[in-house]
Amino acid sequence: MKPYEYGFRVFLLTFCYVMVSGYNTGKFTDTATSRFILIAIGAAVSLGINIGVYPIWAGEDLHNLIAKNFTGVAKSLEGCVDGYLKCMEYERIPSKILVYQASDDPLYSGYRAAVEASAQEETLLGFAIWEPPHGPYKTMNYPWRSFTKVGGALRHCSFAVMALHGCILSEIQAPPESRKVFAAEIEKVGQEGAKVLRELGDRVKTMTKLSSLDILFEVHMAAEELQKKIDEKSYLLVNTERWDASKQAQGIKEVLNGTSAVEKENRNKENKNEGVEPTNVDQTLVHQSKSFLGNSFLNRYDSTSTIDGFKLSWPARRSFHPNLPLEDEDSKTYESASALSLATFASLLIEFVARLQNVVNAFNELSEKANFKDPVEEPTAVGTSDGGFLDKIRKLVGF
């Protein structure tokens, strides 16, 4: 009943007005007729102004909103990739980003507009389906819902961009030397992904079909190159020094047998109760977990510091180098965690490429239902070469 709330309210006011006026005059019919005529005149004037004099179409606003969000997400994607490769760091993370409020950060505002556009799209859709054919929207029952499907698919990609931005905001960061190894492939995926988004946004804005059905070919190739590089340099993303052949075999055997960390802990407790010393592997795991959770050396601020009322107590973002004054075990633990953050960023980027297929499918469905224009083929270049020595002779003779 929410879309009809205003009409229901006007009906109640009109009924009360007729009843009160008729009670004093006794002319219920005359009062109701005059009231109906006034409502009809007001509706005719408003429709005439909104349609003929100064039209404001909800469908056009919905169309422009979808096209604009493509550009915003593309800018955020490029900004996240460039910022990550340049080791971008926030000296002070705005508290508005921490609580998901509007901020002047361009990386944040780009994808945030697309994520929050759901309610606005539904509101505009509710008005657009009642509009008559107008402008480029010349068919009855125009497929406005297909526009919202495109917006929903784009929003699904925006969540991946949000996660990429979260890697930049993360407290655990990969060292610059590790990022440089994958820099070319990551940058290529970011550029091609943003290129696809911009082209789709332009196609939505100009209401033109795709000129090529293989629009995702380049970005898929870039993602495959990144995946191959990860496979080749996978030793940079894990701490291979701790895993020799025997430990690897033991770990695989434990996974196959379904041994969990809880069972290990229970076994250690039983060994302590029985007076049996835990193994070296178990001691190392316990030491790593305690040092990672308890060490506060890398705190950006101390445990009592706050940012606009938000307490900070996690290790600060920084690269891990051998000259850091950390214990050897602690340094390797943080170094391993930092390498995993690079793997997280790369995997999220590949996931973003996978989600682009949904956007292309939704756009193709929209272009078919809305009868978008066919793409204009670019004219082929006309050759200006003289054709060789024989053509020169013919021109001199006059043939």
UniProtKB/TrEMBL annotation:
UniProt-listed InterPro entries: ALMT (IPR020966)
Source domain of life: Eukaryota
Keyword Transmembrane applies: yes
Annotated Basic and acidic residues bias: 262-275
Start and end residues of each stretch annotated as Disordered: 258-278
Keywords: Ion channel, Ion transport, Membrane, Transmembrane, Transmembrane helix, Transport
Subcellular location: Membrane
Protein name listed in UniProt: Aluminum-activated malate transporter 9-like
Lineage, uppermost ranks: Eukaryota, Viridiplantae, Streptophyta, Embryophyta, Tracheophyta
